[in-house]
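User: Run a structure prediction on this.
Assistant: Running it now.
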Amino acid sequence: MLKKYILVFIISMIPLIELRGAIPVGLSQLWGAELPILPLYIVCIIGNMLPVPAIFFFARKVLEWGADKKIIGKFFTFCLEKGEKGGKKLQEKAGRGLYLALFLFVGIPLPGTGAWTGTLAASFLDMDFKKSTIAIMAGVVLAGIIMGLASAGVFGAIGAVFH
């Protein structure tokens, strides 16, 4: 069982997969028995939140450093421009509700959203670290609840009732 906890912890830290992929793995029969839900959520949330400070404080600096490098420069410049453009667009639409928008962006499990992307956006927008981290953590918790319900088949059952 410890191996499966380590596995879901590691999966939770991987960009694009994050907690959204780790919860279904932990609740499945893959690689052993299904994990108890509360410890699973705690391990996945910790794993998903662990990279947040490094992303917030260093990712932008790494992208800026690499923007003028020969091999990686074009890609890093693309990431910088995309991040700044997306951040400004989000800021214009969200207005004063920027932290709520960040929470929803991280919390609704869609492709391209999550703690990694949300943290990078918060960094590009020069948002307050503490407030951003709280919004991101709340979003991670929401995403975990949604993925847990989806993994348990709740959404399929609701769809069957209303179909």
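Residues 2 and 123 are 34 Å apart (CA to CA).
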